[in-house]
Design goal:
- The complex is a heterodimer of chains A (117) and B (112).
- In chain A, the strands form 2 sheets. In chain A, strands 2, 4, 5, 6, 9, 10 and 11 form a 7-stranded mixed β-sheet that branches. In chain A, strands 1-3-8-7 form a 4-stranded antiparallel β-sheet, with no helix packed on it.
- The radius of gyration of chain A is 13 Å and the shape is globular.
- Chain A has strands spanning 4-7, 10-13, 19-25, 32-38, 44-51, 57-58, 67-73, 76-81, 90-97, 106-108, 112-116.
- Chain A has 117 residues and is mainly beta.
- Chain A contains no helices and 11 strands.
- Chain B has 112 residues and is mainly β.
- In chain B, 0% of the residues lie in helices and 54% in strands.
- Chain B has no helices and 11 strands.
- Chain B has strands spanning 4-6, 11-14, 19-25, 32-38, 45-51, 54-58, 61-66, 71-76, 85-92, 101-102, 106-111.
- In chain B, the strands form 2 sheets. In chain B, strands 2, 4, 5, 9, 10 and 11 form a 6-stranded mixed β-sheet that branches. In chain B, strands 1-3-8-7-6 form a 5-stranded antiparallel β-sheet, with no helix packed on it.
- In chain B, a hairpin with a 4-residue loop joins β7 and β8 (71-76).
- Chain B is globular.
- Chain B starts with a strand and ends with a strand.
- The chains are: A mainly beta (117), B mainly beta (112).
- At the A-B interface, β5, β9 and β10 of A face β4, β5 and β9 of B.
Chain lengths: 117, 112
């Protein structure tokens, strides 16, 4: 149980274009999803918290107009990297929190490797 | 100072060895403790989840939490080459909107 599917696993795009990444919880409802960025051999950097039906909460230093997050249903959150530039190239990972308002461990997707040329 | 400290390694052991991975933390509000395993170019996979102090065993894996020392450990018995991965500790509490705080990860290589 607690499977999170992330798509696409890899994407290459040209500078200036936008890329959408999907994160789905397949067998549970996720009121909260988190989006991370991971640099090579580094830990996870939390970008934003996505709550179903409300605006995402962004971490300090993350441009909300560049990284658009939508959490329209209890099983789907999307991250759109707008006007991508080479410095946006990275590994993006989503996670979903099962259960209600209390704490519960996160379940991760398999990540999306974005390369901006 | 980081809230969670984890030695990045790398750690290299022969097959069959017992592996000990550790994290320390400073936030006494943490009550939930996790260990994740991450293979290269994949998302982290939840290995162990414990609440408060104590031990939890699952097959070859044992997680220990000592809240008085703010120290957690993951032991891997009879390590296998397939255990080669990066191990991330993570922690959370009831007062942080469900967020988890992660260590930087320890890279483990088990040599056949």
């Amino acid at each position: 149980g607690a499977v999170v599917s992330q798509h696409p696993s890899r994407v290459i795009c040209k500078s200036g274009t936008s890329v959408k990444i999907e994160c789905r919880s397949l067998d549970f409802q996720a009121t909260t999803m988190f989006w991370y960025r991971q640099f090579p051999k580094k830990s996870l950097m939390l970008m934003a918290t996505s709550n179903e039906g409300s605006k995402a909460t962004y971490e300090q230093g993350v441009e909300k107009d560049k990284f658009l997050i939508n959490h329209a249903s209890l099983t789907l959150s999307t991250l759109t990297v707008t006007s991508a530039h080479p410095e946006d190239s990275s590994f993006y990972i989503c996670s979903a929190k099962a259960g209600g308002a209390g704490y519960s461990p996160l379940h991760f997707g398999n990540g999306t490797r974005l390369t901006v040329t | 100072q980081k809230e969670v400290e984890q030695d990045p390694g790398p750690l290299s052991v022969p097959e069959g060895a017992i592996v000990s991975l550790n994290c320390t933390y400073s936030n006494s509000a943490f009550q939930y403790f996790m260990w994740y395993r991450q293979y290269s170019r994949k998302g982290p996979e939840l290995l162990m989840y414990t609440y408060s102090s104590g031990n939890k065993e699952d097959g070859r894996f044992t997680a220990q939490v000592d809240k008085s020392s703010k120290y957690i450990s993951l032991f891997i018995r009879d390590s296998q080459p397939s255990d080669s991965a990066t191990y991330l500790c993570a922690m959370g509490g009831d007062t942080n909107a469900g967020k988890s705080t992660f260590g930087d990860g320890t890279t483990l290589t088990v040599k056949p």
